[in-house]
Amino acid sequence: MTTSPQAAQGAAASAIGRMLRPRSIAIVGASPTAGALGAKLLANLENNGFPGDIHLINPKRAEIHGRPCLASVDDLPEGVDVAVLAIPQPAVLDTVRALARRKVGAAVIFSAGFAEGGAEGLAQQQEIARIAHEVGMVVEGPNCLGSINYLDRVPLTFIDTDISAEQAAFNRAQPSIAFLSQSGAMMAVVARTLADRALPLSFAVSTGNEAASTIEDYLEYALEEPGTRVLALFAEQFRHPQRLLAAARRARELGKLMVLLHPGKSSAARESAATHTGAMAGDYAVMRAKVERAGVVFAETLEELGDIAEIALRCQSLPRKGLAVVGESGAFKALCLDWCEELGLELPVVHDADSPALREALPPFVALSNPLDLTAQGLVDPDLYRRTLAALLGDARFSAVVVGVIQRDAVAVKLEPLLQALREQPVRKPVIIAGLDEGAQVPAHFIEAFRALGVPYFPSTERVLRAVQRLTAFAQRSTNPAVLPPVTLTLPAQRQVVPEYESKALLAPAGIAFGASQFAKDADAAVAAAQALGYPVVLKAQSEQLSHKSDAGGVALNIQDADALRAAWAQMQDSVRAYDASIVLDGVLVERMGQRGLELIIGAKNDPQWGPVILVGLGGVTAEVIQDVRLLDADLSQAEIVAELNRLKSAALFHGFRGAPVLDIAAVAALIERLGQVLRGTPAIREIDLNPVVVYPQGQGVLALDALMLID
């Protein structure tokens, strides 16, 4: 009988629940030796008051700290929830076999030296996975630091962990953060950092090598934990991309936030491919386009990961468009303007006429602006802080308020009136207090008081602005799929590379605009085609062996008459033969010379794991050098595509730059939308490369001058 994906997912969640919330635990490799992994694990469980059964396994000991020891796994009672393996790598595989015989629900493997250690280790890891799948056992690791359940005080890790009963009760009573990491070191670092910020945690999990459970498994489980509001992830790869995307959509349905830190965007992590599209749409870029579209916030640093999670957890709502910034320095105001322009944060402009409440709150000599410089007047008139914040809280133009405070200078005089303003009216929008002078001593009771009101307190204002930008962009992002139906093409058999003339014949009926052209197999046919099309023409060599024609001398431009065409034909044959004598030309494509315009590259890629994406950018043949590109999901609406085009660094070229005509950006969006329909409807297409696509003045459309398709 075949198990449905839903049933399999439910079984996995149940098994993970047994591991994270066990009633019985076996420690394989229990030890009385201080510093040994088994000893530290046992100490963690005892110090955190684990109430269930603990089975110690050590063939050389009769007891440890008054607890009896079993000689082997075979002596365990059947059905123990989880076994933690604190043993050397060579003993792990046989131990997993024994655990399977005793019907243990889950195993946590600390040992390294498996897939990361070479062929022998990989083979052992694969056997562990086979056994686990065969008996329905969850395996965390190998090569992991284990997990921590902060709600029930269950630390299945050798990292020193102390969760008081009061802290666990606090974690259960508050919205919390689950942190999931493939890296054990990052689990330890980030979980400690979040806890030090007094942020409630539900779970911290390190998945390690993911032999028989993956980060997606723990994500699906944590998503359904009612109190978990934020899911923070550190991941270097996703083994089940479609499950991740489904989890991201599920998070949005539940009103929960996923934030991800994912290394791997450096040039060293990208691989080249046969087309410009493949070269520029690397693994990281494709992943990011799809995951952001599904509703995940990306962090760029470990610090950002924590900052975004903290704002999302503490604040009652997320920052949206329209930010107010308050400071005490003209220099800070200038810096903020620079930061916000760089980040793309909108600061609504304020004037005396449209801001009566704010104007009334300020002394006459303080000019209205955003960012607002209160000057040092607040030291003379501390109530200025209360009045200013109260006015901003009541102003609907601002979706969030950031207050930057110089902390070394009479900080209590400033913080007390800010707290008063927050206590006097409900805080319905994010308010964040931040220091300008990181490292200054701030009385802890002030920070605790702000946090109790749902107001984060940060040591750095620049950090706040970066985190707010990530969340603002997330709040404005649409995740609604396209309404236009997919378009299915009938692809040629026995082709992997579809040359230009065939690609254009396939794509033109789907609504992709190309210039007038004819395919010719010999020089006479090419002359006849040119006469029918009208000179001047372009001549382009056609072969599935020739992905980049210009590299081989396979393009001749601006041919004016039949004699020039025949000469170009002969020269082209010689150039291609000199480039690669094995290339066999199908013929040539004769195309009417098009008018000049702005050149774009537009390409599509059906990633085998993530699905379809579309790349657009400036450049034609120089696209890879300029690297001004956007990578889009293939189901965006025309309005969303236009918004993405306007995020290109060179977007001003669409809008009449320096007296040039305004270009037909709507036609570009329409072409991309149709390309998305084709990609969604024809998954056998691996890549489509339209390079260049020429954009003409508004109302005159676009033309794709070249086309190449790769198919599976």
What can be said about this structure in brief?
The protein has 712 residues and is an alpha/beta fold. The chain is built from 24 helices and 30 strands.
| First-to-last CA distance | 32 Å
Rounded radius of gyration (Å): 31 Å
What best-fitting shape do the alpha-carbon axes yield?
A: flat
Largest sheet, strands/sense/barrel? 7 strands, mixed
Using DSSP, what is the number of strands?
A: 30
Keywords:
24 helices, Dna Ligase, domain 1, alpha/beta, seven-stranded mixed sheet, 712 residues, Rossmann fold, disordered N terminus, flat
Structural notes for this entry:
- This protein is α/β, with parallel strands linked by helices and 712 residues long.
- The strands form five sheets. The chain has a seven-stranded mixed sheet, sandwiched between helices. Strands 9-8-11-10-12-13-14 form a seven-stranded mixed sheet, sandwiched between helices.
- Helix 23 crosses helix 24.
Set out the fold topology.
Elements: H1 5-20, E1 24-28, H2 37-47, E2 53-57, E3 63-64, E4 67-70, E5 82-85, H3 92-101, E6 106-109, H4 119-135, E7 138-140, E8 147-149, E9 154-156, H5 165-173, E10 176-181, H6 184-196, E11 201-206, H7 215-223, E12 228-234, H8 241-253, E13 257-261, H9 276-280, H10 283-294, E14 296-299, H11 302-314, E15 323-327, H12 330-343, H13 356-361, E16 372-373, H14 377-380, H15 383-393, E17 400-405, H16 411-424, E18 431-435, H17 444-452, E19 457-458, H18 461-476, E20 497-498, H19 500-507, E21 517-520, H20 523-533, E22 537-542, E23 555-559, H21 562-579, E24 587-592, E25 598-607, E26 611-618, H22 623-626, E27 629-633, H23 638-645, H24 665-681, E28 685-695, E29 702-704, E30 708-711
Parallel strand pairs: 1-2, 1-5, 2-4, 5-6, 6-7, 10-11, 10-12, 12-13, 13-14, 15-16, 15-17, 17-18, 18-19
Antiparallel strand pairs: 3-4, 8-9, 8-11, 20-30, 21-24, 22-23, 22-24, 25-26, 25-28, 26-27, 28-29, 28-30
Helix pairs in contact: 1-7, 3-4, 7-8, 8-10, 11-18, 12-18, 15-16, 20-21, 23-24
